[in-house]
Amino acid sequence: MNKRWFAIIKILVILLPLGLGLWLINKNVPVYGDLVINADFQHAQGALSLIGPEIRTKYQDGVLAILESPVYFDLRSLPWFKAARIYLTFKSQGAALEGLAPQVGPGWQYQLIKPMVIMDLDDGWQKAVFEFNLTEIYQAKNVKRFLISTIPQTDGGLLIKDLTIILVR
Question: Which residue has better confidence, 84 or 79?
Fold first, then answer.
């Protein structure tokens, strides 16, 4: 009887860490190589922080208003993601989108990138597309910071309806 219990315990000691390892790999490695992250303007996520600081933004009716520029967000990504495509759906309410600026060095070293393309949508909104090489972006403790920069034109701000980030291997 004792040999049988030792055999069962031995199998469990081998299978449990193996199963845990496979589960962790499954959770952290996307199946198809891309990972899509949609911003939630009310709650911070594991991979994406809130757009802030809060004093420069206002959330109302599913839309985030940027009242004063610049605002920023932090992206946490695993090291095997080498590129990111960022889609920003916005509408000008007195400020124009200047671009996104990834942090390229410690402190306030940012490089402003203009959108690759800006598409007009049917409902008056616009969608800007950005592409970044994540290996060239400064990161502190696996966190990459991006600024959203606007150009004030009249009183008002920039409305953001959607921020989608696609991480690519």
Answer: 84
Which DSSP symbol is given to 68?
S
**What is residue 23's three-state secondary structure?**
helix
* Dihedral angle, C-alpha 136, 137, 138, 142, nearest 10 °: -110
150, 97 contact by CB (below 8 A): yes
Return left, alpha or beta for 120; rule: phi > 0 is left, psi -120 to 50 is alpha, else beta.
Answer: beta
DSSP lists the bridge partners of residue 43 as none
* 62: CB partners within 8 A, 6+ apart: 41, 161
Kindly state the helix (H) or strand (E) to which residue 100 belongs, with its residue range: strand 83-105
| 33 phi, psi to nearest 5 deg | 95, -15
Rounded mean pLDDT, 1-6: 79
Q: How many CB atoms lie within 10 A of CB 56?
A: 17
pTM above 0.85? no
Distance of CA 136 to the CA centre of its chain: 16
Mean pLDDT of the chain: 87
| Amino acid symbol at 154 | T
